[in-house]
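Objective 1b. Sequence-to-structure analysis of Glucans biosynthesis protein.
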Amino acid sequence: MAPQRREILGWALGGALAAAGSRAGLGEAWAEPLAKPVPFAADTVLKAATALAASAYRMPDAPLPSQFSGLTFEQYATIGRKPGTAIWASDKVGFSLEPLHRGFVYTTPIVINIVENGMAQRLIYDPADYDFGKLQPPTGSGDLGFSGLRILAASDEGFQDVALFQGASFYRSRARGQNFGVTARGLAVRTGDDPGEEFPLFREFWVEKPSPASNTLTIHALLDSQSVTGAYRFTIRSLETTIIDTEMTLIGRAATDKLGVGAMAAGYLFSGLDHRRPSDWREAVYEIAGLQMQAGNGEWLWRPVVNRETLQISAFSDTNPRGFGLMQRSRTFDDFFDDVGRWELRPSLWIEPIGDWSEGDMRLLEIPVTTENNANILAQWRPKAGVTAGGTLSLAYRQFWCWTPPTKPPLALCTHSRAGKIGGKPRFTVEMAGDVFADPQRAAAAVADLHASNGKISFVQCFPFKDRRSVRVMFDLDPGSESFSELRLTLNLDNQAVSETWLYRWTA
């Protein structure tokens, strides 16, 4: 949901306040009205962010007719673009765009510019481009602006949704054949910290018209918040996996060391690890199963997530992380038995830093929820240095919206985690699968290396499965009087780790 609206900031750049122009100029395949063209260069957005940081923060605002500001989700969902109005749909450039209408919780106005041949032209809202269903379309309301942007990519089946930028700095993408799921953010500020979270927003987008042979789409974005401004460049490639390269420069309005970079969120309701919904007809309900990390020292870590009784925040300190992401590892219908949710079709989001990110920590938040409609699992990299007032921080990374990450550990991976109780004590089963266990003798020789920060491990047994090329570890935790314990498990052969490291926080 957008933050509370305030006065609009009166600054002009890149056509933000340019006067309305004619519909001609950027192709005949669409008739979106355009403002007067203005020059656009590689440093245009950075200059805008720098100028913006020197002024006081003001929330963008614009009048919104009452028939849109009070919409329910169901009413808002009936508003759609009319056929044939998608930008570039007939230009054979591999992508098309659909500016999104304002309404429901998406009331904050966003400026969208089209860039071609070094010139930018602002899109001007026209109600004729939208089908409002049973809603009464506005008359004489002027330029309402937009709430976001839908990106479509050409495929053998026609144009398919590949990305969606809407709401604060949130955006989504997916691989071919997937449903939308995990959500990314341009930036997070003070997530889980006092005096409360700050929600940066994208004020303006500049979308470069791609060449037919490029197979890439470049979007520039101007970010703004109480603490920072930022210049972003997203390069989108829609393949079997959708790849989004992100280059960002932040400018501090005020000093802050609570920035979340590569932030993402997804929903998790229950699974066999927590049994929060024993009466539910489904086997499990979650968009992602856990947080995967490759630390700077090369170690591969897997942290399954759960729907907690209380808010849990975990921090994994590291230097120059090699990769991280929220992963959906359950890829069969039988993992869920949900004909509507189809959780097995949700994307994994894997991020690989470009260049060194220095010291920081991987932050994981698990928030209690009672419905599947909340993104309650949050992950982000928090740089130790932060940004000073007037200072800058530049980072780059590559996102893979995928079925499985392109970089895989040469180790057995965790395929299942389950938990329950026996004799009043917590019991866990963790299954690791990989080619290393194809040889039954080697699988039988695997040794579980288990550690508990509090309490003690009171029972351990390993079960090899030839057909699954896996080893399942069963163990009990005797917590004593402790209310939590950090658990750590790897499978070893000849005193060498042959599995990723399984991490879990048990709480009473």
